[in-house]
Amino acid sequence: MGINNSEMVELKIDGHKVTATSDSSIIQALWSAGYPRIKGVGCLEGVCGSCRVMLRRNKESGVEMALGCQTLAEEGMDVMFLDFPTPSRHSYHLGPIASSWDLQDKFHEIFPEAENCRHCGGCDTACPKGIEVQKGVRLASNGSFREAGELFTVCVSCDLCMTGCPENIAPNRVGLFARRATAHFHGRPPNLIHRLEQIRRGELAITYPEKLDKHNHITD
Ligand code: SF4
Ligand code: SF4
């Protein structure tokens, strides 16, 4: 990021007035202003989904969901980090499922609420990765697990789709089930080898802003 081509912007993050260069991500802006935030910060590469934020851009009335590490600071932006506990439900084991013929019954036993989808599109709007979440839920409910799983291959498990669902559906868990079931009965998800290769080549390496060491401590 070149400081020379950027300008200073003022925004609000979690109620703090922050001034940062316009080429800073929201997280970098907070850090550079001296507010060390550790909770809700993970890979800084848009992969882990920890840094979910709700934001309103300057003079716009609507809000949007985004990932703090992937969104640049803007003048007048109002940002709130979303910290909420991830509910632990939908516990299951695929091993005891005898064959793929039994998958659909098992799916509806684990996710009975999935059939109640209202097709409101709230999950699509919430998803910062642009996944067709609603379609994925419908495909899985209809037993098309491979197709459903493919839609969720870039899911970062940020839980935003689950948080806004009026039917208490956890679309990302539905997607994960679809991917697991596909891998268990048919083979690996299509991009798994690609992702592993990216990790092996260091293309998903974590980088730290200038002022922080790897323990997220400010160094000056
Ligand atoms: S938010 Fe829930 S009810 Fe609405 S489309 Fe998504 S899964 Fe269906
Ligand atoms: S599908 Fe849900 S959990 Fe996955 S990235 Fe989109 S909003 Fe986040």
Q: What do you see in this structure?
A:
The protein is an alpha+beta fold and 220 residues long. It contains eight helices and five strands; from the N terminus they run ββαβββααααααα. The chain folds into two domains: 3-83, Ubiquitin-like (UB roll) (Roll); 100-196, Orthogonal Bundle (Fumarate Reductase Iron-sulfur Protein, Chain B, domain 2). The chain has helices at residues 26-32, 103-110, 122-126, 133-141, 145-151, 160-163, 171-185, 192-200, and strands at residues 8-13, 16-21, 52-56, 64-67, 78-81. The chain has a five-stranded mixed beta sheet with strand order 2-1-5-3-4, with helices on one face. A hairpin with a 2-residue loop joins β1 and β2 (16-21). 31% of the residues are buried. The structure holds iron/sulfur cluster (SF4) (2 copies). One iron/sulfur cluster binds next to α6 and α7. Residues 117-123, 133-134, 137, 164-167, 169, 171 line the site of one iron/sulfur cluster (SF4).
Entry summary:
The protein has helices at 26-32, 103-110, 122-126, 133-141, 145-151, 160-163, 171-185, 192-200; strands at 8-13, 16-21, 52-56, 64-67, 78-81. It is an alpha+beta fold and 220 residues long.
Helix-strand category: alpha+beta
CATH architecture label of the largest domain: Orthogonal Bundle
H-E order = EEHEEEHHHHHHH
Number of helices: 8
Which regions contain 5 or more consecutive residues with pLDDT less than 50?
none
Largest sheet: 5 strands, mixed
CATH class of the largest domain: Mainly Alpha
Helix content: 25-40%
Give a list of the ligands: iron/sulfur cluster
Q: Kindly state the mean pLDDT as a whole number?
A: 86
The global form is elongated
CATH fold label of the largest domain: Fumarate Reductase Iron-sulfur Protein, Chain B, domain 2
Sheet with most strands: strand arrangement: 2-1-5-3-4
| Rg calc | 20 Å
